[in-house]
Amino acid sequence: MNSSGIHVSGSLRKRLAVTLIGGVTILTVLLFFVIRNYATQIAQQSQDSILRASVTSILDAATIRNGDVVLDIPYAAFSMLSTTTDDRIFYAIYQDDTVISGYENLDIPEASARAESRFRTITFMQVPVRQVTASRVLVGADLQTHVTATIAQTQDSLSGTLNRISRNAAIFGAGFFSLAVLLSAWVTSTTIGPLTRLADSVARRGPQDLSPVSKPVPSEMVPLVSSLNLLMARLDRSFKQSEDFIAEAAHRVRTPIATVRSHAEMTLQRVDKEENRQALRSMIRAIDETSRAAGQLLDHAMITFRANQLEFHDVDLVQIAQEIVLRLTPITEMKDVELRLDVDPSVKVSGDPILIQNVVRNLIDNALKYSPSESVIEIEVRGTPTPRLEVRDQGPGFLYDEIDTLTDRFTRGRNATGVIGSGLGLTIARDVAAAHGGKLTIGNNLAGGACVTFIF
Amino acid sequence: MKFLLIEDNKELANAITTRLLLDGHVVDHAMSKTDGLAFAETGEYDLILLDIMLPDGDGREFLGHHRAGHKDTPIIVLTARSQVSDRISVLDLGADDYVTKPFDHAELQARCRAVLRRRAGSSQNIIKLADVEFNPVAGHLSLGGSTIALRNRELRLLELLINSPGHIFSKQKLFDRLFSIDDDVSENAIEVYIGRLRKHLEHSRLTITTLRGLGYRLDEQ
Amino acid sequence: MRYFYILICCLWLSVTSAEEWEEQKLFKGSSATQTLRLLSSTDTSVFAPVIEKFLLENPTLNIHYFVTSSATVYQRFRTSPDQFDVVISSAMDLQLKLVNDGFANQVEDLLHPDWAQWRQSLFGFTLEPASIVVNKAAFATLPKPQSRQQMIEILRTNPADFQGKIGTYDVRQSGLGYLFATQDARASESYWRLMEIMGSLDTRLYCCSGDMIEDLASGSIIIAYNVLGSYAMARADLADKIEVLHPSEFPNTMMRTALIAQETRLPQQAELFLRYLTSSRWSEPGQTETPLPSLRTASENTRRSIISLEPGLMIFLDRLKRRLFIREWESAVIQ
């Protein structure tokens, strides 16, 4: 088992390489022996044919003179048997079954097959020799006799030739083998290549990119990829279903909450007793907190989902800021807070407009929440040096020792007591900034108040 | 002002209606898209509050039909959906603004005001009392030829008082109307705004009387 | 004729069994501990300088040098192959057969021209042409034959002068004579015409070169055919009496060959000696000189006349072939 908990059983690459190289090895050895065997046959054939010529020339010279077998062996009969390694020659001439010349202990094969020249490999004088035997019937005036000639030759030259051929075959085999091994390596890597590329492309995906694999794959990988796609589609569906479920749940929860809130608000109008009023206020705050938390949880889920499949468009930060300011104006007016925009003519960034809008809205919402009455929130949008949007308020600001942890999920500043919030706003902003390759800096103004900068 | 509220949740509709009535508005309530369309075609409304999720169809369809009929009644959508996913399409389909449930009534009012101001900007709702002309939509006060711009809370406070001259408003009531629940201020903050209004009305025939233990009252001299 | 053949065999047997040698000599090294036994067909007087030079280089060895005719060398070695360490003979065919039959050791890493070795076992180390040697005095008035054809004509035109005065090897006894005769016969038909004329003039037959040269010098014969010129040259004392002529049309050049006995007890020393022989160092000028011409004297011309070390040499050793040849030779020469 490896670190990620997957049972590993062998390696495709290894298996493929071993199979290929094993095959190549067997093929090489086979090739070697086939070549060698073939060469042996050829060499043996050439030796045999010379031996046959030699024995034929001897027999041709046999005659009967005055009732005796006369055999004037031609000089060439042995001369032609010269080899580079000076192979030894043994011979015998038989008249019927009696040796009349040559090596007496050089036997001949049975008479039954004597008519044809016959080849065999035997051991003579402790050395292996190739022997050829041929017979001829001589007919004289009153004599009919069989003359048999046999010649045996050692095979030094043959084995020399064979060794040379074997060596060449071995060199050829080695060359073939190494070439084939290289080829196998290449084949292995090209075969494994699509698999590795698929693995890479799946690994490079964000955790929630569940789109099907669309790149072309080899047909053998189609079952794997289609089941992968199926799995991802199922995941995607269940992911979307849970998101729809969240949205539906939010809707189902919010409507009754809105009812409760409206009633509570009205009740608040009607009661005069201070403690009842306090209780109602607390109730309404709790309701708000609940709904806000639900909303931001959904937003956070939505943004996490989107962050992994960002749709990049050209977005004008200035335009976004202006729209949001316009949208928030009723609220700011209600609270007697002024939103002051200070922007460059146009600041274009590449990003997901919905996410950016959400973040800017969250930042201004935050500022609004902590701004005292009749204060100013400054929103600055600049294109240089890098595109940035800064929101400065005149509220209490952040506590310095909390700045690093504020963007953690569900962390709220100690200053936030009495203000409704889920603690997710800055987390969302930070995540979106990161998804756009930017960052979120949090600090305080010199004159007091929080300063949050969204830098691309 | 006359509102058309299209909301299928009876409880919520009741609460909103009650609240609007309390503010002195007239409200017609429709429970479905079809009813809503019928109301909108026959009646004249200053503003429509539209729930986006209706039993017989999406509020967005209402928006489409309504705008296709060349009605330009401002519409504020009430939605329980996420800001992120729904906002764009709703505004694209011709809504003027939206509020997310649950909403602060003060916010709804503020948005209504903003929408009306954006749409009309007219003088139709000018309230005259004694020598003072008050335009709650534009948010200013005319007095002897000079115009005074009011801050929002001043404006709302004056609106309350001027609509019911001679009526005693408790401090609590005024506070509830001026501040939202999450405004972390004490009820005494009301005194500041009463003080400002008194200053604006210095040279008019309107005075704000403090009735100790009871509240405040606008009097005409 | 079969009887005759058996006779020859009996003669060989008698020679071998008699344990008699034409010559034998022990050459002593200055600090010798071992004795290398050489069986040779080369006269001691001719070969001694070669041995002595070797012993100077290798004083730890003695060399026991046995000399007999080339045919006897073959026979003796075949019957007792463990008695000798190195076998040297002028009969190339017999030597080749010894190697072919497995009586010789191979010397793997000895570099030697291919034409001068067989199976890395048999090494030629001299080049000695067959020559016509004449008595100078007798030929004062006669034309000297420069070829076999000329010799035939001279003999034919002057039969009286040559009657009984011609010498050649008895091929039945001399291994070298047989080699030369068979090679001659292979090369040209004129050999047989020459033999017939020589036979008609009562040619005298010799077993060995030495006797023939002595008789030439004394004038009892006036022309000798197929004699080893080197032997004649060796007799510096006879230089003014005899003259060596080389037939120009198809000279036969023999290589004296050496092999190491398969059963030698001193393989390293035997190899040392063989390397010495093949190195031709022995032919370098020194205090004592041998008349044996080394391989270094080989020119392109003589190369062509050298009898090849090849299996064909064994053909004439075939019993049937030999019988035929001897019969033909006898019918020509003895008549």
Write out key terms for the chains shown.
heterotrimer, A: 456 residues, alpha+beta, Helix Hairpins, Heat Shock Protein 90, 3 domains, five-stranded antiparallel sheet, five-stranded mixed sheet, 8 helices, 51% helix, 20% strand, rod-shaped, C: 335 residues, alpha/beta, D-Maltodextrin-Binding Protein, domain 2, seven-stranded mixed sheet, six-stranded mixed sheet
Any overview of this molecule?
The complex is a heterotrimer of chains A (456), B (221) and C (335). By secondary structure, chain A is an alpha+beta fold. Chain A folds into three domains: 9-204, no CATH class; 206-309, Helix Hairpins, CATH 1.10.287; 311-456, 2-Layer Sandwich (Heat Shock Protein 90), CATH 3.30.565.10. Chain A contains eight helices and 14 strands. The longest helix of chain A is centred in the N-terminal third of the chain and has 49 residues, at 12-60. By secondary structure, chain B is an alpha/beta fold. Chain B has two domains: 2-119, Rossmann fold (3-Layer(aba) Sandwich); 127-220, Winged helix-like DNA-binding domain superfamily/Winged helix DNA-binding domain (Arc Repressor Mutant, subunit A, Orthogonal Bundle). Helix content of chain B is 41%, strand content 26%. In chain B, the strands form four sheets. Chain B has a five-stranded parallel β-sheet, sandwiched between helices. A four-stranded antiparallel β-sheet of chain B has the order 8-9-10-11, with helices on one face. The mean pLDDT of chain B is 81. Chain C is an alpha/beta fold. The two termini of chain C are 14 Å apart. The chains are: A alpha+beta (456), B alpha/beta (221), C alpha/beta (335).
